[in-house]
Model the fold of this input.
Amino acid sequence: MVAVPSGQVTLSDRRTQSSWPVEVAPFQMSAFPVTQSWYARIAGRRPSSARGERLPVEGVSWWDAVQFCNALSRCEGLTTAYRLCVDAETAEWDTSADGYRLPTEAEWEHACRAGTTGPRYGRLDDVAWYQGNSDGRIHSVGGKQPNAWGLYDMLGNVWDWCWDVYDAEVYGAYRVLRGGGWADEHWSCRASVRRRSHPTFRIDDVGFRIARSAPLPRP
Done:
């Protein structure tokens, strides 16, 4: 897990032509997307279509991802972050919990940018697997350069599920996806790009990475 400092990020949405600033508290994020070996060890199954221990897990839904977070928290004796509503396949976030969770999209973009202000934290071919260099397949995590805070594959390889609902009034329960994937064109692999999908959706270029809230300072 990598310590991500506090800061402010401005989110934007091309569809509505709107932008809004968000303050981000310090938190921790996994240096890599969750790998297939890690997912199998905690969840007890291998859902991915391509197979490889260090490949990002894919073919996982948002619902799968929040269940993984809770399972990992229990394995490490931490308080689970989510109260799962099994019938509705949704969850409530206990923000006081010290367990693992999905990043918010503001946390994700702040972590991706790592203090930069451009569309990417480095030259695209140096930092991301995308349509132009992936040879039509997913790649092992950590094969490209990290950003300044030590986070790998924030752009390209697999899209990351985020906690947030995309736009409840228009898209209902659809959740946010960030980062672009191995099959995407260059314009999808930018820090500001937002995508959305149903929380039960599974496909071979969508995975996730995990986060934890930073512990509060002692009084």
